Amino acid sequence: MLNLTYHLSDTIQENLKRIDELRTKILLTPLSPKQEMKLRYEANISKSYWALTLADNPLTKAQIIKLLDNPLPKKLTDPQKEIVGYLNALSYIHNYWSGQNKQITTRTVLDLYDLSCKKVFGSTLMYYKSKINEVEKILNFTQSGNDNPIIKAGLIQIEIIKLSPFENGTGRVARLLSHLLLSQYAYDLRGLLVIEDYYRNDLVSLKEAVSSIEKNKNATIWLEYFTEGIKTGMTLVKNNLENKGLEPMKQSGWKLTERQNKILEKLENPDLKITNKLVQKAFGVSQITASRDLSKMANLGILLPHGKGRSIFYTRV
Q1: Taking the model in full, what pTM does it have?
Q2: Where do the domains of the chain lie?
């Protein structure tokens, strides 16, 4: 039976407000593709390191970097397989789920297990099939309604942990699922958000937050803990960007033109979407010009792209 009820406490509301402020500030920070790729690489190493220390993986950050900076050996140790698997899962999330308004299915959950765990723990397909109906209930519940994406990510993570649909590796799959859901709404900050260290650095608080679900018969305390973790992770990203000494960039390239501002005005209602053809028709511009406008706004984190090729459309962040 699902225990997904919660009270939107003052703590949760304050955290969500601050999270939105931080998200906007970070997504509008000008970064070149090279800068963003470097920061995401560093974030993925931190996510993998901290996530797998929860499972007593003995590799240090230096050893992880050394592993990744050289051709992978033909035969990996189990700790190395865990790191490579977690990184593959993070890459899958970024490449196939970032900004995508797609339904998370029971197959998605299994894909995350296969990427992050299968090479170490083997297939647990039969065991998973015995829990698949309960997994589907969790997915349907957390993806329905108008809950804040942060709330949905917190609920999907804790319920998968409670259900434990895999014989091994459930915790990491649950955390990856929350990253996946956050990435759909740009709350993972284009892959820069790290929350795994927040879990690992205070295991007592983590245990208390998890156990509060059964103790209180609701998810309020867990969501207070989870939203605090997201806020803490975003604050670290903001501070990192401010203190990184990023190479100077021409700010003019990051200012919106009059036409681009008008495109934004057309998307004031978050339910609206815009396509290349609509921009061409509304402003009398060529396909190439419309594509440049939309791509620039997507790179700035102002618009979210959905789909691929000719079917691509954009919504406001």
Answers
A1: 0.76
A2: 10-243, 251-316
